[in-house]
Amino acid sequence: MLEYREGVAAEHFQTQTVSQDTVLQALLGWAADKPGWREGFMWNDIGHMFTPAAFEVEGKPTA
Question: What are phi and psi of 25, to 5 degrees?
Fold first, then answer.
């Protein structure tokens, strides 16, 4: 599994792969700030999991 954020928590993305080499290449590309490191993956928007509403239960904060 590989995740990244575009600055704010609401812009959080996740992908899954069985290839450790593919993840390694993506991480090396990210670390070197190379364009295109995200290509070749199907990214899922999971930003909704990191909004204030995601941390509330029945209208009450969980923390």
Answer: -65, -40
List strands edge to edge, sheet with 2-5.
Answer: 2-5, 12-15, 44-45
- pLDDT tens for 1-46 read 999 999 888 899 999 999 999 999 999 999 999 999 999 999 999 9
Distance from C-alpha of 8 to C-alpha of 39, rounded to nearest angstrom: 21
3-state SS assignment for residue 18:
coil
Task: Evaluate whether 23 touches 29 at the Cβ level (below 8 Å).
Answer: no
- The pTM for the full model equals 0.71
Residues 6+ apart with CB under 8 A from 1: 14, 15, 16
